[in-house]
Amino acid sequence: MQKIKELVIEKSLLFSALITIAVTFGIISVLAIEAFRFFSEVSIFDFFTDTQWTPLFTDKHYGILPLLSGTLLTSFIAISVALPIGLSISIYLSEYAPKSFRKTVKPLLELLAAVPTVVYGFFALIVVTPFLQQFIPNLSGFNSLSAGIVMGIMIIPFVSSLSEDALHAVPKALKEASYGMGATKLQTAFKVVVPAASSGIIVSIILAISRAIGETMIVAIAAGQQPRLTLDPTVPVETITAFIVQVSLGDVQHGSIEYRTIFAAGITLFVFTFLLNTLSYRIRKKYQEKYE
Amino acid sequence: MNSIQKNRLKDQLFKIWGIACTLFGLVLLVIFIGDILIDGIGRIDWGFITDLPSRKAEKSGIFTALMGSIWILLLTTAIAFPVGVAAGVYLEEYSKKNRLSAILEINISNLAGVPSIIYGLLGLEVFVRIMGLGASVLAGALTLSLLILPIIIVATREAIKAVPKSIRDASYALGASKWQTIWNQILPASGGGILTGVILALSRAVGETAPLIVVGALAYVPFAPSNPMDEFSVLPIQIFNWISRPQHGFIENAAAAIIILLLITFVMNGIAVYFRNKWQKRLK
């Protein structure tokens, strides 16, 4: 009797674990089926080469490039903010800061990542854009610059925390050897510790990029809803995620081509983040073997 | 200046830069919360919390959105907590090192990186359309449950890993079965860590906006949901809706609603940290 009970419990726990596989399977098949229906009406060649995205207008164009450029532009700005600041924080905390300071500051910084993204959107639109307009007079009310900067602030803790963990995991002997040679903390940090922790740092950067690409509310609120193929950070753009929100807010008939566009946009987004996540997982696995 | 002095100077300069960067993030957080408090605190009164939404900014309240958020929170907890912990226990205690466990592990790590809006698309197709739940609280809660499942699983595994082997050995030595050991020893000993992870995951769910918009949660609902099949709105969507309106009164409303939302998020994070500290002390 006891044995049967144990077996039933084990199987039901296994079932719970298998749900996660079902989720992945569900995501891929839902996106693939709806995108397949979309591409039976729109040529895949136009999708990747047309420079206009106007599925909600009478003159319909289905070129993903403007949405893609909007996504990459905001993500690029975000990473340019988060990378230097996040890395400097991680090096300072792991190599310079007193232990007690590190212990209080790390959770406080992580609070930045706990703030709901809709709140950051408010901040970007109501505070940062008017502030930047004092210096850049022709900055439009919706723009990728403020959205990108605020998104960068949001992902600082992703870079700083994960990189700090990686720096902290570097064996003490390496650092001591460097100090023994008379190197300063800065020389040790950049010539010994950072190279030794490089794979962990790269993982943190890739995850931050993936997070920026998938971020929705900040860009939906502050970057605008005008798909355009541009690298100009002062004008309104639209990201893939913001487009999905825009369509979802409207009244779109199930089964219509408009309905399917969000899945075509979604699968493009999914492919990007999937590749980045797989890459970071591979690097992480390799790196774990190195020190264990 | 010789090269030793130069290097020392550089070292000092980087130290200052490092402090500046660290403070940059924290100072922004303070400015930001301060700004929202200035914009919104004057709007918060009892009526703001108990009033229904309205076309006039000064008459609008967050009652329906707040109730929607509470419904979502309760249902998501009821769904994601048991499934996530069960999956975590399986992976840490039962699964052998084989192909299946490797696939499960890669898969969970990947799911944790899928953008939340993609979960919205999954929920829209599977829960809203195929299962016919419509844009209901239940469909929203199921979607968010899938979203936070990986976080709960990872937290459960970490917490179980931290339980000393001696506890396990002692239990087996007394003749306890595997499940008896897990249920009576390992889960109680890892409870604090699991709880921390679950609360953090739920605080993320409370702040999520995008997947619920995709699932079809409304910006305006006249009544609070009374059962899981009712349509609903949540606080972040209400905030988003108010931000999107040009009149100034709504911006003030948005700031006030943000104060309530941040209060909920920070209190949940605080509780999580409290449990973690208490648990880590006990474990030692």
TrEMBL record, chain A:
<dbReference type="GO" id="GO:0006817">
    <property type="term" value="P:phosphate ion transport"/>
</dbReference>
<protein>
    <recommendedName>
        <fullName>Phosphate transport system permease protein</fullName>
    </recommendedName>
</protein>
<feature type="transmembrane region" description="Helical">
    <location>
        <begin position="64"/>
        <end position="87"/>
    </location>
</feature>
<dbReference type="InterPro" id="IPR011864">
    <property type="entry name" value="Phosphate_PstC"/>
</dbReference>
<dbReference type="InterPro" id="IPR035906">
    <property type="entry name" value="MetI-like_sf"/>
</dbReference>
<dbReference type="GO" id="GO:0005315">
    <property type="term" value="F:phosphate transmembrane transporter activity"/>
</dbReference>
<dbReference type="InterPro" id="IPR000515">
    <property type="entry name" value="MetI-like"/>
</dbReference>
<keyword id="KW-1003">Cell membrane</keyword>
<feature type="transmembrane region" description="Helical">
    <location>
        <begin position="144"/>
        <end position="167"/>
    </location>
</feature>
<keyword id="KW-1133">Transmembrane helix</keyword>
<keyword id="KW-0813">Transport</keyword>
<feature type="transmembrane region" description="Helical">
    <location>
        <begin position="262"/>
        <end position="281"/>
    </location>
</feature>
<comment type="function">
    <text>Part of the binding-protein-dependent transport system for phosphate; probably responsible for the translocation of the substrate across the membrane.</text>
</comment>
<feature type="transmembrane region" description="Helical">
    <location>
        <begin position="188"/>
        <end position="209"/>
    </location>
</feature>
<keyword id="KW-0812">Transmembrane</keyword>
<feature type="transmembrane region" description="Helical">
    <location>
        <begin position="12"/>
        <end position="33"/>
    </location>
</feature>
<feature type="transmembrane region" description="Helical">
    <location>
        <begin position="108"/>
        <end position="132"/>
    </location>
</feature>
<keyword id="KW-0472">Membrane</keyword>
<dbReference type="GO" id="GO:0005886">
    <property type="term" value="C:plasma membrane"/>
</dbReference>
<dbReference type="Pfam" id="PF00528">
    <property type="entry name" value="BPD_transp_1"/>
</dbReference>
<feature type="domain" description="ABC transmembrane type-1">
    <location>
        <begin position="68"/>
        <end position="280"/>
    </location>
</feature>
<comment type="similarity">
    <text>Belongs to the binding-protein-dependent transport system permease family. CysTW subfamily.</text>
</comment>
Automatic annotation (TrEMBL), chain B:
<keyword id="KW-1133">Transmembrane helix</keyword>
<dbReference type="GO" id="GO:0035435">
    <property type="term" value="P:phosphate ion transmembrane transport"/>
</dbReference>
<feature type="transmembrane region" description="Helical">
    <location>
        <begin position="130"/>
        <end position="155"/>
    </location>
</feature>
<dbReference type="InterPro" id="IPR035906">
    <property type="entry name" value="MetI-like_sf"/>
</dbReference>
<keyword id="KW-0813">Transport</keyword>
<protein>
    <recommendedName>
        <fullName>Phosphate transport system permease protein PstA</fullName>
    </recommendedName>
</protein>
<keyword id="KW-0472">Membrane</keyword>
<comment type="similarity">
    <text>Belongs to the binding-protein-dependent transport system permease family. CysTW subfamily.</text>
</comment>
<dbReference type="InterPro" id="IPR000515">
    <property type="entry name" value="MetI-like"/>
</dbReference>
<dbReference type="Pfam" id="PF00528">
    <property type="entry name" value="BPD_transp_1"/>
</dbReference>
<feature type="transmembrane region" description="Helical">
    <location>
        <begin position="16"/>
        <end position="38"/>
    </location>
</feature>
<dbReference type="GO" id="GO:0005886">
    <property type="term" value="C:plasma membrane"/>
</dbReference>
<dbReference type="InterPro" id="IPR005672">
    <property type="entry name" value="Phosphate_PstA"/>
</dbReference>
<feature type="transmembrane region" description="Helical">
    <location>
        <begin position="103"/>
        <end position="124"/>
    </location>
</feature>
<keyword id="KW-0812">Transmembrane</keyword>
<dbReference type="GO" id="GO:0005315">
    <property type="term" value="F:phosphate transmembrane transporter activity"/>
</dbReference>
<feature type="domain" description="ABC transmembrane type-1">
    <location>
        <begin position="66"/>
        <end position="272"/>
    </location>
</feature>
<keyword id="KW-1003">Cell membrane</keyword>
<feature type="transmembrane region" description="Helical">
    <location>
        <begin position="254"/>
        <end position="275"/>
    </location>
</feature>
<feature type="transmembrane region" description="Helical">
    <location>
        <begin position="62"/>
        <end position="91"/>
    </location>
</feature>
